[in-house]
Design brief:
ribonucleoprotein, mainly beta, Large ribosomal subunit protein bL33, Rubrerythrin, domain 2, elongated, single chain, 4-stranded antiparallel β-sheet, ribosomal protein, Ribosomal_bL33
């Protein structure tokens, strides 16, 4: 079964400049823009924004 390009794998990189990343999938039909989520960064031990990188 082929992977669907409608839900690509993306990397979410921390805006706190720690280099920590999360890997997830997103739905391009619902979220065509770059994704921004507020998640936990274990390097600095607090919640920060993570932005989609390409």
């Amino acid at each position: 079964m082929a992977r669907n390009e409608l839900r690509p794998i993306i990397k979410l990189k921390s805006t706190a400049k720690t280099g920590y990343t999360y890997v997830t999938r997103k739905n391009r039909r619902n979220n065509p823009d770059r994704l921004v989520l507020r998640k936990y960064d274990p390097v600095i031990r607090r919640h920060v924004e993570f932005r989609e990188e390409r």
